[in-house]
């Protein structure tokens, strides 16, 4: 069965789905995106993702191509047309097609909406049980990381550095040594005194949907939470570290730049949060990870 994509009102095999070369997304990265997982054909946290999408659009002055309810109908139809139970939808909205000129076009074009479907990015064998290694990399991104912009070059370069180093992720550092987040995930450390520590959801990071759920689950289960910046030095000496993203969810980080974190194994707090998050997915979608 070919993968089916959606582009501006049409469903078509992904290989044949195309956009205009004068789309401002193509020429200026003038657009935003979301990446939403589904299990048993049920979208996980669709409203939280779509609320973040609406915030990103509003911050860039891009109109909504359609309201939330019809958008969800299109996503559900796309899942059906792809005949896949588990996976993820990549959804992108750009300012639309206009002759190339930096300022917004005087007559706003119709925002362009496209979606494609992917197989789930499940952790490689052993990653969930043994944890993963990350490297650090300078945070070379712009000052509006809270917008889920399609302008991802700094993240691409950081991820490539991680791939070359055989690491799962790059943790991004400000010049003063603050860890903001990963190139495509949020970053957390765990200490005995404070519990789970993660950068506040300000303009330095993308406030992850998984991050929000994991912090809520931690608070509901009497695990301490501190939303404050932490340094790479604190990360090196933390008891535990982990990362979160839509897929692959919660992953223990057992090595940063070759330095072992804690005892080099997924710690009890991370394991508890992984289990709680899996129960959360089970309750929402019926998907059983155990
Ligand atoms: N990335 N921070 C950044 C920079 C990200 O790109 C992502 C997600 C996250 C985690 O957000 P969430 O929990 O809402 O997935 C944090 C997606 C998955 C991507 O670019 O493919």
Question: Which descriptor suits the 3D outline?
Answer: globular
Biggest sheet, open or closed, and with what strands and sense? 10 strands, mixed
Distinct small molecules bound, one entry per kind: N-(5'-phosphopyridoxyl)-D-alanine
Going by CATH, what is the homologous superfamily of the largest domain?
D-amino Acid Aminotransferase, subunit A, domain 2
Enter the CATH topology name of the largest domain: D-amino Acid Aminotransferase, Chain A, domain 2
User: What fraction, in percent, of the residue positions are helical?
Assistant: 25-40%
Per DSSP, what share of the residues sits in E-state strands of 2 or more residues? 25-35%
> What integer is the average pLDDT?
97
Tally the helices: 8
Cα Rg: 19 Å
Assign the CATH class of the largest domain: Alpha Beta
The CATH architecture designation of the largest domain is: Alpha-Beta Barrel
**What is the rounded distance between the termini?**
29 Å
Class based on secondary structure composition and strand pairing: alpha+beta
Q: What count of domains describes the coordinates?
A: 2
Order of helices and strands: EEHEEHHEEHEHEEEEHEEHEEEH
List segments where confidence is low: pLDDT < 50 over at least 5 consecutive residues: none
- In total, how many beta strands? 16
Notable traits:
binds N-(5'-phosphopyridoxyl)-D-alanine, globular, six-stranded antiparallel sheet, about 30% helix, D-amino Acid Aminotransferase, Chain A, domain 1, alpha+beta, ten-stranded mixed sheet, D-amino Acid Aminotransferase, Chain A, domain 2
């Amino acid at each position: 069965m070919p993968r089916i994509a959606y582009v501006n009102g049409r469903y078509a095999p992904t290989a044949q789905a195309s956009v205009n070369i004068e789309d401002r997304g193509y020429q200026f990265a003038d657009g935003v995106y979301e990446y939403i997982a589904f299990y048993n054909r049920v979208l996980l946290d669709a409203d939280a993702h779509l609320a973040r999408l609406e915030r990103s659009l509003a911050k860039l002055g891009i109109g909504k191509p359609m309201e939330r309810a019809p958008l969800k109908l299109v996503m559900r139809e796309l899942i059906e047309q792809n005949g896949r139970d588990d996976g993820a939808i990549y959804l992108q909205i750009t300012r639309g097609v206009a002759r190339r000129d930096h300022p917004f076009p005087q007559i706003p074009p119709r925002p362009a909406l496209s979606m494609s479907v992917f197989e789930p990015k499940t952790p490689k064998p052993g990653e969930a049980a043994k944890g993963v290694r990350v490297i650090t990399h300078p945070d070379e991104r712009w000052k509006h990381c809270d917008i889920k912009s399609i302008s991802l070059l700094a993240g691409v370069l950081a991820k490539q550095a991680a791939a070359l180093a055989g690491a799962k992720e790059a943790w991004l550092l400000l010049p003063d040594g603050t860890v903001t987040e990963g190139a495509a995930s949020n970053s957390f450390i765990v200490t005995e005194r404070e519990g789970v520590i993660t950068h506040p959801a300000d303009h330095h990071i993308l406030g992850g949907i998984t991050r929000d759920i994991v912090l809520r689950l931690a608070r509901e289960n009497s695990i301490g939470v501190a939303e404050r910046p932490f340094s790479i030095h604190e990360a090196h000496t933390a008891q535990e570290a982990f990362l979160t993203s839509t897929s692959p969810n919660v992953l223990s980080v057992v090595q940063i730049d070759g330095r072992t974190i804690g005892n080099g194994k997924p710690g009890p707090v991370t394991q508890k949060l992984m289990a709680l998050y899996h129960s959360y997915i089970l309750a929402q979608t019926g998907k059983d990870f155990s």
